[in-house]
Fold these 2 entries.
Entry 1:
Amino acid sequence: MRGSIEVNAGRCTGCRLCQLACSWVHLGLFNPDRSHLWVKVDEKRARFAVEFKETCNKCRACVKFCAGGALTIREEVTALGQAPLG
Ligand code: SF4
Ligand code: SF4
């Protein structure tokens, strides 16, 4: 799937719904520690930090359940005029 997941850490509330959604979708259980992303406390900046593990397959389930709006999709834009044709 094209595009990437962007993190706006300033909007993260630390609710961990993203991790619960990920573990549920991929493993059928609610276990934040078994998800494909981390939600950590960034003590230096006094906020939360979100990082994706290498095992993340960009399925976007975490984005769908991020109530804080901290996770969004950045779609890959292709200029039609520059795309190779057939
Ligand atoms: S995009 Fe990655 S971190 Fe998010 S639910 Fe899918 S596998 Fe998990
Ligand atoms: S669901 Fe969104 S607001 Fe909640 S911990 Fe995850 S990234 Fe942060």
Entry 2:
Amino acid sequence: MTARIIECPRCMIDGWPRGSCDCKRRFVKGTGVIIDWCPRCEGIWFDGGELERSFASADRQIEIPHEALAGAFRCPLGHGPLRSFHYPDTLALIEMCEHCFGIWLDGGQFREIRIVRKHRAAEAEKKQREGVRGAICDWIDAKIAELSED
Ligand SMILES: [Zn+2]
Ligand SMILES: [Zn+2]
């Protein structure tokens, strides 16, 4: 397990010195999921490689949803501004890097999506999401489910 210090996008905006938030890289038990988790702001960075693999196995081309806009957050791996788009039925914004396809979820947004997810799972008929944004949201749902079982 290689330690990699990421620059937490939230802590960077809040003006904390680089590396001071002590982000931890961890594997989620029983899954292949790798995340970087910031103990200070509780945000999560999902490595883009895994999302890419999941798109490749579904025979689709990964891309940034066309409605995504450049926001204030920057890629913790140094690729510049992240692009953000809404998670449906929430105020939560998902931040995504158009170069490495990594995804940043703020701590509060992670909690909000987790709550909405439970709601969705309770619906007998899950409405189908469309397009690349839908596919990315489904992927995030699956990752949050795996994290929550941890
Ligand atoms: Zn942080
Ligand atoms: Zn990046």
